[in-house]
Design brief:
The protein is an alpha/beta fold. The chain folds into three domains: about 5-40, no CATH class; about 50-175, no CATH class; about 195-360, Rossmann fold (3-Layer(aba) Sandwich). It has helices at about 5-15, 15-25, 30-40, 70-90, 115-120, 130, 155-160, 165-180, 185-195, 225-240, 250-260, 290-305, 315-330, 350-360, and strands at about 50, 60-65, 90-95, 135-140, 200-205, 245-250, 265, 310-315, 335-340. Strand 5 (about 200-205), helix 10 and strand 6 (about 245-250) form a beta-alpha-beta unit. Helix 4 (about 70-90) packs across helix 8. The longest helix is centred in the last third of the chain and has 18 residues, at about 290-305. It is elongated and about 90 Å long.
Length: about 350
């Protein structure tokens, strides 16, 4: 029996041992060592998987975020970043949300099998099903967001990364190129816009509460209601806004704004808001298709903010999305005030917090 063939055969059957042997064997090989270290860290290292014989002449990029702790517009900005990556490297994008996604209902809605397609049209002519049977498929990785700089949390990157103008401009172009709402979603959003905004000069306000107060690492420090209300009062006084559209995840915030500004404040009263400080996107409810409706309601808030004449907000994914959508129209806000108290340098993460919640 050939001893060498026996050993090689054994190693082929034991993947981890084979890897360890190769690490020792190529320990002094600079190229091997660098290649291993760059896996999942170098955004320009693209590996194609062979899933079948479909679309042999296409380079496909499957944007499949698996993080079960991401809220709706955290997922949405991941998609925009993935679409930007695909565009930059001339790949055809396909978007699929994991079944672990917080908005997945377990069945098709609006013709979409996965939660991304509950709300949005497919971003290319290749279906998810066909992408997963195709010859050359690159899978989304978190490091791909960092092709132009390190993104930990998007708001932190925008304020401190020095690429605010370029990032927002590029994502607005990507939004225009790829994002289309399902007709049912567009109808739902448009049906209420006139009643909310009317013909008044309107300032949009986004107040992110609930778990934002947990001071997650790299997330924006809490902006107080006093800061928001002062900023709104100043905007009304100095720029003549006649109406205040309030988008928030907490009922107490609605009550405080109405107490201060009275009938100037308008918001959607049929929305699911937190009354106990628990985040809406982690909530459970007996209402029909609650998970889907959570996404629908925050979308309506975001698109309404994007239709306002001005904006007061902190750094949140909802407000970032509204600024991108507004920029995509070619008509910037007449007034924009993004309030920042800096970013948390320590603390837990949204992922660890959600994992802990799932255990309990």
């Amino acid at each position: 029996m050939n001893f060498r063939k026996t050993v090689l055969g054994y190693l082929k059957e034991h993947e981890k041992l084979n890897y360890a042997v190769n690490c020792v064997r190529y320990f002094k090989n600079d190229r091997f060592r660098q290649a291993v270290l760059e896996i999942n860290h170098d955004p320009t290292t693209i590996k194609y998987e062979n899933f079948g014989d479909k679309n042999k002449d296409e380079l496909i990029y499957l944007i499949y975020p698996e993080n079960f702790a991401l809220g709706f517009f955290a997922l949405f900005t991941v998609v925009l970043d993935g679409l930007y990556f695909a565009d930059r490297f001339h790949m055809k994008p396909v978007v699929e949300y994991s079944d672990e996604c917080l908005y997945y209902e377990g069945h098709a809605i609006n013709g979409g099998e996965n939660a991304f397609e509950y709300y949005f049209e497919p971003v290319s002519d290749i279906s998810v099903k066909d992408a997963r049977r195709s010859r050359q498929v690159a899978m989304y990785r978190q490091c791909h967001r960092n092709v132009d700089g390190e993104i930990t949390v998007l708001g932190n990157y925008l304020e401190n990364g020095g690429r605010m103008t370029e990032y927002m401009r590029d994502r607005a172009a990507i939004y225009n190129k790829y994002i289309r709402l399902k007709p049912e979603v567009r109808e739902y959003i448009d049906s209420n816009l006139d009643d909310i905004l009317g013909d008044k000069k309107c300032i949009g306000v986004h107040v992110r509460g609930t778990d934002f107060n947990n001071e997650y690492r790299d997330h924006a420090k809490v902006v107080t209601l006093g800061q928001y209300m002062k900023a709104v009062a100043d905007a009304v006084k100095e720029h003549g806004f006649e109406r205040i559209f309030l988008a928030t995840d907490e009922q107490a915030t609605v009550d405080r704004f109405r107490s201060r500004f009275g009938d100037m404040v308008v918001c959607y009263d049929d929305i699911f808001r937190s009354t106990d400080g628990e985040p809406v996107h982690f909530s459970e409810s007996s209402r029909d298709e609650h998970r889907y409706k959570m996404g629908l309601e925050v979308m309506r808030d975001m698109y309404t903010l994007a239709k306002c004449d001005g904006l007061v907000c902190g750094y949140s994914n909802v407000s970032i999305a509204s600024r991108i959508v507004r920029l995509s129209t070619g008509k910037p806000y007449v007034y924009e005030n993004v309030i920042s108290n800096g970013f948390n340098e320590s603390g837990t993460t949204t992922y660890k917090d959600r994992k802990k919640r799932k255990k309990h």
